Amino acid sequence: MYKFIKKLDNGIRIGELETAHGKLPTPFFMPVGTVGSVKSTAPWELEEMGAQILLSNTYHLYLRPGEQLVKELGGLHKFMGWNRPILTDSGGYQVFSLGENKSKVKSPKSKVIKENSHLNLKESLVKISEDGVEFKSFLDGSKHLFTPEKVIDIQLDLGVDILMPLDVCPSGKASAREVKEAVELTIRWAKRAREHFNKRIQNSELRIKPLLHGIVQGGLDPELRKYCAEELIKLDFDGYSVGGLAVDLETRDMWGIVKLMGEILPENKQRYLMGVGTPDNIIIATKLGMDMFDCVLPTRLARHASVFVKRHPEQSEGSHYQLVNLLNSKYRADGGVIDQKCGCRACQEGRGFSKAYISHLLRSNEILGLRLTTLHNLWQYLELMRNLRNSD
């Protein structure tokens, strides 16, 4: 359950989200642990840095090791050694984006009505019908079917705190008609997911029930976004997610949509901007009314030797952070730490490592190098959220 506390003068919403595994001050950032692990980091290191909640992926955990095994071993928290909250996304985007060849879209009567519709984010061997999504595993080619109900069941078996329903995330290049079709199907699936979730929870003995979000789709069309949000609000979800604005690895003119969502989504429910983004993106989004964020950038860029460094105020020029690549030759002999004001293990005063040393590790393909850059980037994101919550 979300408790709205106040809105700061800069537009940032301060609140508290209660889950079965603890209360979370908002806004917050979720490090991404796709298969149950944030790459190259241990749970205690994440706790030490102040991570409050992690994100894992339903699709990947379903395929390997399987939600039933995780359930038998005590649930995802015990499985991965993490005692704080966990959010799982529905896996829908991964179903669409990890397939191969062409997708086939079926009508409610299961007749193939066209190919290359909004649901083939790439050329994917995915069949989408009113029932759900049939796909082939990227691991072994085996066939599987995700329905709105099954995706809820998988996440409940994993034992997570916040669930996402199966939705349709169209390509950034989708036509207006295709985006509209995606919105309509997302709403119909959301109704089924909500009903199934309610039945499952009603029969459970949980003291604090998990939270289910509705996912607002609609591309960059304000009217479609508004329509989708209004229909999902009628279903009274526990919180609302804004999807589809971080697809195709492209920068899109999304701020008008984010602003609209900040204006029309319920004030007394948490808002989750999915997959966004850079530290500067998050600063903008919090001021437009978003509360929850996730992104693979801090860990992915770290594995490619790139680290975020906060700019001095007089150097910001509209951007609060710069990205530094430690493989640049000028860092080979640089005896300074990445950021003197950073509190991460790579930079910590008296215990930190020089840019020259970390550059050497990265060039030598030593695991410690990418661990240090990862710890640094995650610290930057988590420290940013702490600062935003105290920025009034």
Short overview:
The protein is of the alpha/beta class and 392 residues long. The chain has 13 helices and 18 strands.
Main features:
single chain, 392 residues, TIM Barrel, 2 domains, eight-stranded parallel sheet, 13 helices
Account of the protein in words:
It is a single chain. Helix content is 35%, strand content 19%. The protein is an alpha/beta fold. The protein folds into two domains: 2-88 and 148-295, TIM Barrel (Alpha-Beta Barrel); 306-389, no CATH class. The strands form four sheets. The protein has an eight-stranded parallel sheet. Strands 8-7-9-10-11 form a five-stranded mixed sheet. Strand 14, helix 9 and strand 15 form a beta-alpha-beta unit. Helix 6 (148-158) packs across helix 7 (176-202) and helix 12 crosses helix 13 (367-389). The longest helix has 27 residues, at 176-202. The two termini are 24 Å apart. Mean pLDDT is 91; it is low at 100-123.
